[in-house]
Amino acid sequence: MLRCSTRKGYFTLLEIMPTVSLLAAIAVIVILSLNPKKQFEEARNARRRADLLLLADAISSYAKDKGVGVLGSLPSSPNPAIEICRAEAASGCYSLEALLGVYLDAIPTDPLAPSDGQTRYFLQRASVRSITVSAPDTEPSTAPDLEVTL
């Protein structure tokens, strides 16, 4: 004798709800374990380190080619460092326009810098023949400033 089943291949709500709940719990655990905020902060700090090395290398190469005297206008320790600016017209900052083309393709900027010409990278003469490039906006705010001295 043949028996007809009344079930037509659908899942009941009681079968679906535990599965959805389990998947949601796994998703929450994965997202919390990855800590996206910390990952973004570390990525921005890595970019800052790379930018500082690029700037320090370009300025050092320029100074070697043109003579150390070109860095004479930079403030020396213990005076405060001067900010690098993106545009020649900006005041109160140090322009690196002379380095564009040969030493730099573009003047790097901090990942969180405003778009008003500020780079949020700073220059200071460490000694007669060396410079320090720094990034004070490291993340989190309790982290020490990044510095490169060449």
Number of strands: 5
Give the count of helical stretches.
Answer: 2
Low-confidence runs of at least 5 consecutive residues: none
The pLDDT mean sits at 84
What's the assembly state of these chains?
A: single chain
Which structural class fits the helix and strand makeup?
alpha+beta
Strand order of the largest sheet: 2-1-3-4-5
Describe the protein's architecture and organization.
- A 5-stranded mixed β-sheet has the order 2-1-3-4-5, covered by helices on one side.
- 35% of the residues lie in helices and 17% in strands.
- β3 and β4 form a beta hairpin.
- The longest helix has 31 residues.
- The N and C termini lie far apart (91 Å).
- It has 150 residues and is an alpha+beta fold.
- It has 2 helices and 5 strands, in the order ααβββββ.
- It has one domain.
Features:
alpha+beta, 150 residues, 5-stranded mixed β-sheet, rod-shaped
Question: In brief, what are we looking at here?
Answer:
The protein is α+β, with helices and mostly antiparallel strands and 150 residues long. Helices cover 35% and strands 17% of the residues. It has helices at 13-34, 36-66, and strands at residues 82-85, 94-95, 118-127, 130-135, 146-149.
